[in-house]
Amino acid sequence: MANPQFYLREDTPCSDAPIAFADFGEASNAIAVRIEPGDDARSLLPHLGQLAMIDISFPAFGDGRGYSSARILREAGYEGELRASGDVLIDQLNNMRRCGFDSFAPSTPLDENAAKTAFATWDDVYQKTVDARTPIWAKRHG
Question: What are the beta bridge partners of residue 82?
Fold first, then answer.
């Protein structure tokens, strides 16, 4: 397992290889797990305290199920590393960050400057989500 290309946390990236979601129940001491599209992230909720990293796979850029998994995990209180891996594109970085991803391991390396721009593209946002940005409506209505 390679280190993430972009890591937006203060701590050190998890170095344990994630085990498959299907194998997680058998490996009770695992601290890293990989979710594929179609896996139900809610099954991990009782185990969030033991997981240092959850790797969410994006096998194709058009498959957005990983966004939902990320949001479910963050809204349930998961504070560990949440890694987006696979077919991760520049124009997805900002929205992935908004859903709670803080680590990115694209299968094809991305341009560092373009990624920096992508993460900072929109100062103001409309929807409330798991990142700390205040939505425009809340700014207007205090």
Answer: 54
pLDDT digits over 30-50, tens only? 999 999 999 999 999 999 999
20, 68, 74, 82, 128 from 35: Cα distances, Å: 7, 12, 14, 11, 24
Which of 20, 17, 101, 22 lies closest to 64, judged by CA? 101
- What residue type is 131 in one-letter code? D
For residue 33, the cross-strand partners are 19, 54
Instruction: Write out pLDDT tens, residues 89-105.
Output: 999 998 899 889 999 99
* CB contact set of 104 (below 8 Å; sequence gap of 6+): 4, 5, 6, 7, 83, 84, 85, 88, 93, 96, 110
pTM: 0.88
